Amino acid sequence: MLAIVAVLVLVVPFLPGFDTDTQDLGDNLLAPLQNPAHLLGTDALGRDILSRLSVAVRVSLLVAFGAVLISALVGTSVGLTAGYFRGRIDTVLMSIGDIQLAIPVVLLLIVLVATLGSRPLLLVVLLGLTDWVGYGRVVRSMVVSLREQEFVQAARSAGASGFWVIRKHLLPNVLSQVVILAAFEIGVVVTIESSLSFIGLGIQPPTPSLGLMINEGQRYLQSNPSLVFVPALAIFLVIGGIQFLSQNVGVRRSRSTT
């Protein structure tokens, strides 16, 4: 799965005839493998599906990686702070997380994007700031246990500050779990971004997007179903490949700790 995604992102842009925007109404709605110049066919405007699919997958991955990076940074920072200092800080931070969990993420994103706009950078930030709670909860639970360990108690007895202990002792011990969680969340963010693009609140034309391609192709579902099935298959390959990778990372991590 990941090999196919890698070919789409890294190889296809260097193929002859790569062009996402040129329109040719004389060759519109071509089926896959019907024309050697357009291996996956063309859309209603005669644009090459393979070229647009390559850019759409790249856009989805860039948005997902950016959003996951933000959510991982925010969630890890919140979890480390709440788990180590406990008390009122812990109560306030976890209460904020509980309030955010009470609101459906997709509904919250729809409201925010409809209000603030759907520029790519803003979309990355909004996706990141609405998905940090999972990281915060996982990291907090680990830190609550680690803070009572002897190596942490020894550092505190030696006069180390709380932030020094967090940076030197706690963060390295929770980082591997954050990476595993981040690998899983990339697929989730790709799904959410594609859903937003499908309803017109994600990546905007003329930039190709997987959800937008499905939205445009559904009008021709009976006459040319490949316009829907090809980007849908790309979403499946991206999410399936990332999930497979995250599971392998988790298995290797569990073996290394046993």
Question: What do you see in this structure?
Answer:
- The structure is a single chain.
- The chain is mainly α and 258 residues long.
- It has a single domain (42-256), classed as MetI-like fold, CATH 1.10.3720.10.
- Helix content is 71%, strand content 0%.
- The chain contains ten helices and no strands.
- It has helices at residues 2-11, 49-85, 87-101, 105-116, 120-129, 133-146, 150-157, 162-198, 210-217, 226-256.
- Helix 4 (105-116) packs antiparallel against helix 5 (120-129).
- The chain is elongated, with a radius of gyration of 22 Å.
- The model has no long low-confidence stretch (mean pLDDT 88).
Descriptive labels:
mainly alpha; MetI-like fold; 258 residues; elongated; 10 helices
